[in-house]
Design brief:
Distance between the termini: 17 Å
Strand content: 15-25%
Structural class: alpha+beta
Largest sheet: 4 strands, antiparallel
Radius of gyration: 16 Å
Strand order of the largest sheet: 2-3-1-4
Length: 128
């Protein structure tokens, strides 16, 4: 891969997450981390090459807002990486997904306010 191109061997699906009304930020974080462990233990997760969670740092977000920066209203971002969009999205047609993951998500996540974006990507600097 050249330094100025997008990868053709992998894609990412990014979810911008909002916690369920009435759930504290701490409870959202705790439940989401448990949800990740649950997902990782399931057969369907094998098509996912990388799953990352990014949790909004409220203190730094407030600092940036105080400096006049525009900040987001999301509570976190989930990134799933796979060989193709078809493989990544195949998890949503799994029986495990509907029977186990969806009910769990509904306990802490406002699914109606979650935004999902399919992304082609390039990595231009990685120091590890």
């Amino acid at each position: 891969m050249s330094d100025s191109s997008l990868r053709t061997d992998r894609v990412r699906v990014v979810g911008f997450l909002k916690r369920k009304e009435g759930i504290s930020k701490e409870e959202f974080t705790r439940r989401w981390l448990l949800h990740a462990a649950m997902f990782k233990s399931m057969e369907m997760s094998k098509v996912i090459l990388k799953y990352e969670q990014m949790h909004v740092n409220d203190e730094t977000s407030a600092l940036l807002k105080g400096m006049g920066a525009l900040t987001c209203e999301w509570d976190g971002i989930a990134i799933m990486e796979g060989e193709s969009f078809e493989k990544v999205l195949s998890i949503t047609s799994s029986e495990e997904y509907f029977k186990v993951l969806v009910p769990d998500e509904e306990e802490f996540l406002d699914r109606a306010k979650t935004t999902v974006v399919p992304m082609n990507f390039g990595t231009f600097k990685d120091t590890h």
